[in-house]
């Protein structure tokens, strides 16, 4: 990865950490879950409001590291208004970006491509995947 691309990815993560999207509790949620990573202390809550199989609203609250908060913020933007099927496909793609050597594509993956840099730090992969796993857990809860 070029230095300029790595700098762009870092800038995206820092921006989402400082200015998280859709941050705060969602009052009229239909599904929620709490995620916790005991290894680093990251905690977050995901709130989802479904309308049939469409994500009508999604928000989060977090006491976490920058990578976890940025990943959650990017997830909010990526999943808002999506169907559950599209959300699952997005979740699978993020898992690929974080755990395999698949190439990231800014055009196709959008800002989620910036998470590819986390692969260099295996201990931090759990920080980036925690919001996505918590989202999955929320859908299993009522």
Outline:
With 142 residues, the protein is an alpha+beta fold. Helices cover 49% and strands 19% of the residues.
Descriptive account of the structure:
The protein is an alpha+beta fold. It has one domain (3-140): Alpha-Beta Complex (Sufe protein. Chain: A), CATH 3.90.1010.10. Helices cover 49% and strands 19% of the residues. The protein has five helices and three strands; from the N terminus they run H-E-E-E-H-H-H-H. It has helices at residues 3-18, 66-79, 84-99, 106-109, 122-140, and strands spanning 31-37, 42-51, 54-63. Strands 1-2-3 form a three-stranded antiparallel sheet, with helices on one face. A hairpin with a 4-residue loop joins strand 1 (31-37) and strand 2. Helix 2 crosses helix 5 and helix 3 packs antiparallel against helix 5.
């Amino acid at each position: 990865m070029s230095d300029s691309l790595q700098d762009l990815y870092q800038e995206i993560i820092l921006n989402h950490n400082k200015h998280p999207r859709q941050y705060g509790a969602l009052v009229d949620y239909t599904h929620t879950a709490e995620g916790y990573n005991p290894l680093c202390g990251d905690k977050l809550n995901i709130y989802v409001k479904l309308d049939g199989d469409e994500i009508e609203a999604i928000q989060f609250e977090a006491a976490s590291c920058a990578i976890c908060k940025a990943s959650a913020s990017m997830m909010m933007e990526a999943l808002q208004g999506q169907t559950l099927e599209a959300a699952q496909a997005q979740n699978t793609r993020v898992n690929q970006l974080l755990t395999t050597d698949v190439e990231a594509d800014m055009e196709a993956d959008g800002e989620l491509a910036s998470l590819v840099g986390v692969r260099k730090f295996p201990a931090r992969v759990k920080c980036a995947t925690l919001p996505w796993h918590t989202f999955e857990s929320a859908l299993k809860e009522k």
